[in-house]
Automatic annotation (TrEMBL):
One of its GO terms (molecular function) is hydrolase activity. Signal peptide: none annotated. The keyword Methyltransferase does not apply. The lineage of its organism: Bacteria, Bacillati, Actinomycetota, Actinomycetes, Kitasatosporales. This is Alpha/beta hydrolase. Pfam families: Abhydrolase_1. Keywords: Hydrolase. Residues 26-148 form the AB hydrolase-1 domain. InterPro entries: AB_hydrolase_1, AB_hydrolase_fold, Carboxylesterase_BioH. The keyword RNA-binding does not apply.
Length: 251
């Protein structure tokens, strides 16, 4: 396990790493998740082995620290992720980012373009105010104290065992602030950043969730939008064969 300070006060963001050739692939998880749980089985696929791969847990999540003073906005998470890439000596990395992680990856690519050569965004949140059905909206609807007191436990009961397994490891206040930041979005918005970036960009959507709004405009801006059949929000778990092919660039 690797770690580096991210807040100037001794708090550490941590990641596990598989050695290999560069450009490295950096896997970034979604809200209340962990990168290794959602992506290690993908990086181990024969078509993806041999590349240096990092599985980063964002602040407040997984094995990373969860300082009470930290803001956990998209920009805060992006800056922490940049610290990881700097500590790892990476430039021009490929970011494989899911859900909230996609929003973080977009902010990182906007603020530190030299760090990113390719984006594979899986069901990424690219607009403020995600749909009402999104977990971030439910979490952000609580006040922070209410969520920390008993809202966290209530949400864990409703989200199902898969998401709850990693969400219960996230600090409740960090989870709430991250959700609020995700609902607030970034400036420019994730969609605006995605359309303007000069790097290779792939947006992966689960076929069970319908078409991404505004997908034609994104495609006109050079974004490749890939729909994976039989998959919902967790494409890498629902259809790993297709997802690995997208990451490898063969689909």
């Amino acid at each position: 396990m690797q770690q580096t300070e991210f807040d100037g006060k001794g708090s550490r963001v941590r990641w596990t790493e598989v050695p290999g050739e560069e450009p490295a692939r950096v896997y970034v998880h979604g809200l209340g998740s962990m990168s290794s749980v959602y992506h290690a089985h993908i990086a181990a696929r024969p078509e993806l082995t041999g590349r240096r791969s990092l599985f980063v847990d964002l602040p407040g999540h997984g094995v990373s620290d969860r300082p009470a003073h930290f803001g956990y906005s998209l920009e805060d998470h992006a800056d922490a992720l940049a610290k990881v890439l700097d500590e790892a000596g990476l430039t021009g990395a490929e970011l494989i980012a899911h859900s909230m992680g996609g929003a973080v990856a977009l902010v990182l690519a906007h603020r530190r373009p030299e760090l990113v050569s390719r984006l594979v965004l899986t069901e990424a949140t690219i607009d403020p105010l995600p749909p009402p059905s999104a977990g971030s909206r439910e979490i952000a609807a609580y006040g922070e104290d209410d969520f920390a007191d008993d809202g966290h436990a209530r949400v864990l009961e409703r989200v199902g065992p898969l998401w709850a397994a990693t969400m219960r490891l996230a600090d409740p206040r960090a989870l709430h602030r991250s959700a609020v930041g995700l609902v607030r979005g970034s400036r420019p918005t994730g969609r605006e950043i995605l359309a303007a970036l000069p790097v290779d960009r792939v947006y992966v959507q689960g076929g069970l969730n319908g078409e991404l709004p505004g997908s034609r405009a994104l495609e006109a801006a050079g974004v490749r939008v890939v729909t994976v059949p039989g998959a919902g929000h967790n494409v890498m778990l629902d259809n790993p064969d297709a997802f690995a092919a997208v990451v490898a660039g063969t689909l």
